[in-house]
Amino acid sequence: MSRLIAVVGSSGSGKTTIVNALVDCLGDDRSGEPACTVITVDDYYRDLSHLAFEAREVVNFDHPDAIEFTLLAEHLDVIRLGRPVESPCYDFTQHTRLPQTKHLAAAPIVFVEGVLALADHTVRDRLDHVVFVDTPEDLCLERRISRDKVTRARSRESVIDFWETRARPMFDRFVAPAKRDADLLISGTGNLDDNVAKIVDWLAATG
After folding, report:
1. Which regions of the chain are under pLDDT 50?
2. What is the pLDDT of residues 33-83, one digit of tens each?
């Protein structure tokens, strides 16, 4: 049985960087199989290909309704039992799912990474632990601007507008409350190697 561990925090908090470093650090187990795998919540955005592009653009992607949590929960059930899943792949410039999928092998540790990982009970109830990445808001915003300009073809002005009208209010409502109940709190401004070591030690102590 796999351990399902959510890694949550604001958009731009450094979640993905930390999780990627954890994957590199944990490597393979004694049998040569991956010690961990990552399910990215953003891959489960709903396919909006049935809508005109203009209609897709006004969807609030920072609200839990934008995520297909039922499918994500099904995949968590499968991977916990030691079977692989085919995760969706999402085109953030078109707001549609791509034809290809991402093969995710089962592993002893499954990191469920994403801002909205705890926003729906169908997923939240399946998780064993929560790691919360706590990062100052101004730094999160600058990181989101840098990311969205490259990966989502958005201007600085549009990213700031999204942040003020969608990302920050949705974070305050659906994500920030999880901080007080998290099993482990990590500073998003801390040294990456130190953060990874802290999480690895915690995993060993709680395993």
Report:
1. none
2. 889 999 999 999 999 999 999 999 889 999 999 999 999 999 999 999 999
- Residues facing residue 190 across a β-bridge: none
Tokens representing 95? 């707001």
Three state DSSP letters for the chain: CCEEEEEEECCCCCHHHHHHHHHHHHCECCCCCECEEEEEHHHHECCCCCCCHHHHHCCCCCCHHHECHHHHHHHHHHHHCCCCEEEEEEECCCCEEEEEEEEECCCCEEEEECCCCCCCHHHHCCCCEEEEEECCHHHHHHHHHHHHHHHCCCCHHHHHHHHHHHHHHHHHHHCHHHHHHCCEEEECCCCHHHHHHHHHHHHHHHC
CATH superfamily of the 3-206 domain: P-loop containing nucleotide triphosphate hydrolases (3.40.50.300)
